[in-house]
User: Which sequence fits this backbone?
């Protein structure tokens, strides 16, 4: 089976380096072949908008693009302009995470969205009843997108914080998106607190889930709900083995070839 992926890059990006990073992140041994074509930005935006339609996650919960009218005005409508960030609700892992959040969130909960992308999970958590959410990402473009989407959903900055964390893969000091973040009230120059959150959710990729397991779990309170996604069904054993010292009562839900592993933080776990 051959899989073709179309990606959009700015003219200043090193495409080869980006593809190499993506290849390593999913554990491929060889660099796939690729073709670079110069495109028109307005045409890309038009194509993106045409492909993104209102999506019902479960009864009474919709993800709706900014440029369309919600099918049900009295439903929980998560308004989204994804921009260049991951998370439109259309990917199985995002839907799996939204369903889990809708099941477990209680009034007053504090949520950490680790690898927020478009901010969809942090925003949805608040609409499901959480008291506050903190969303972190390594990509300034993702944080910029999440800021925009928080505003589209009338989420006040005091309920949702966005944190840009340092990474070797992004130069957070010179990235063009930083201009939009400098004076944004959603963005905080801080790090998430350990042992604070009632729900910690990470919808990222296999390798960072494995490498950052201790760190991800350390933000959760003892007994907190933890959800891990962004993985294929065949990768489930690796996740369960890696997190078993820190997470109890692990269960798996799946859509198509993708999975979400959930559980609770073991009360005497010493993740750091």
Assistant:
């Amino acid at each position: 089976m051959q899989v073709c992926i179309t990606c959009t890059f700015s003219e200043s990006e090193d495409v080869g380096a980006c593809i190499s990073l993506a290849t390593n992140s999913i554990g491929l041994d060889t660099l796939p072949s690729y073709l670079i074509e110069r495109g028109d930005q307005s045409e890309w935006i038009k194509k993106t908008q045409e492909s993104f339609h209102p999506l019902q996650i479960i009864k009474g919960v919709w993800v709706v693009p900014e440029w369309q009218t919600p099918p049900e005005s009295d439903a929980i409508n998560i308004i989204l302009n994804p921009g260049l960030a991951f998370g439109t609700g259309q990917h199985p892992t995002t839907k799996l995470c939204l369903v889990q959040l809708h099941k477990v969130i209680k009034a007053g909960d504090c949520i950490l969205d680790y690898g927020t992308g478009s901010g969809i999970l942090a925003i949805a958590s608040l609409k499901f009843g959480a008291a506050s959410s903190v969303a972190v990402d390594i990509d300034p473009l993702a944080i910029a997108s999440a800021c925009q989407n928080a505003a589209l959903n009338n989420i006040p900055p005091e309920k949702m914080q966005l944190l840009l964390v340092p990474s070797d893969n992004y130069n957070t000091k010179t990235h063009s998106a930083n201009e939009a973040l400098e004076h944004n009230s959603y963005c905080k120059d801080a790090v998430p607190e350990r042992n604070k959150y009632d729900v910690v959710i990470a919808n990222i990729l296999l390798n960072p889930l494995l490498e950052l397991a201790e760190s991800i779990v350390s933000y959760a309170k003892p007994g907190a709900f933890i959800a891990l996604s962004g993985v294929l069904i065949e990768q489930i054993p690796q996740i369960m083995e890696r997190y078993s010292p820190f997470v109890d009562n692990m269960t798996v839900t799946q859509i198509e070839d993708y999975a979400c592993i959930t559980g609770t933080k073991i009360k005497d776990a010493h993740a750091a």
Remarks:
- The chain has two domains: 1-38, 81-169+177-265.
- The radius of gyration is 18 Å.
- The chain is about 30% helix and 25% strand.
- The longest strand covers residues 220-232.
